[in-house]
Amino acid sequence: MSHKRTGTWVLQRYLLGELPPSKMEEVARLAEENPDLKREIQNLQQANAEMMRRNPPDTMLPQILKRYEANLRQAQLRARAGQVKRKRLYWAAPVLASALALLLVFLFKDGTGFDPNRVKGEESLDFTKTQVLIYRKTGTEVKRLSDGDRVKAGDLLQLGYIPAGKSYGVIFSIDGNGVVTLHQPRGKSGSSRLKQGNKSFLAAAYELDDAPGFERFFFVTAMTEIEVPSILRQAEGLAASPASVKTANLDLPRSYGQFSILLKKGKDND
Question: What is the predicted pLDDT for the residue at 107?
Fold first, then answer.
């Protein structure tokens, strides 16, 4: 990658820590070698800070959520009309830009704009612990969910993770009907490589369906590439055992790590 090929879009992703590790290192090296590129990065940082000053999260949040909900409703209407198969995963398209995920990135990336009064549950985050993150929006409030919290059908969740030094990871969920849903990577054949940094968000929002009882989210990590189909086979085996699916873990090599959050399904979300 030369300086001339390092466009603004790439540099914005660099500032957000969204490039692959090798590209992050390459941009950092080029910036040290090229004063013009280093100056361009600094100018972008200043422009981003100015944008956040002129458009504080308290102002941006309702607008972004309103746009996100409008696009989501359109997708749901098309699904009900039979135009497309209804999915519980709503992947980011260019027009959507995964609005909720982008909002969380702007609010939380490296502490920028962080306000524990605006996002409930964020103050207790431990960035030294590998974990999956689950956020739920209610109106203009965003709350990080914890193990045992109650949710209901129709809740819109945004998933993320803290890698805490782990290079690879698979995120999936099992619901009360025994259905296994893969969240990271996007497909069985995708790479399980994780984005590095304090925190990363998935490029999809997840709408809970009416499966009864619970939804349990797993985060399996390793320092080497993970065979996703193998993890999913184990997940399906666990899902077939109603007696243990809420508490048992996958049988993994000792070099693997696993973390889970169990959300209880019910009408009461207090």
Answer: 46
| pTM of the full structure | 0.63
In this prediction, residue 199 carries a pLDDT of: 82
Q: Which of 85, 90, 89, 6 is nearest to 41 (CA)?
A: 6
- Total residue count of the chain as it appears in this document: 270
CB burial of residue 193 (10 Å; 0-12, 13-18, 19+): middle
CB proximity list for 216: less than 8 A, separation 6 or greater? 173, 174, 175, 245, 246, 260, 261, 262, 263
pLDDT, averaged in runs of 10, over the chain (270 residues)? 57 69 82 88 78 60 60 60 53 42 46 45 80 81 88 86 94 93 90 87 78 94 96 95 91 95 73
Cα separation, 134 vs 183, whole angstroms = 12
Residue partners of 79: CB distance under 8 A and separation at least 6: 85, 86, 87
Bridge partners of residue 182, in order along the sequence: 172
> For strand 214-222 and strand 200-207, is the pairing parallel, antiparallel, or unpaired?
unpaired
Strands 150-151 and 257-265: what pairing?
Answer: parallel
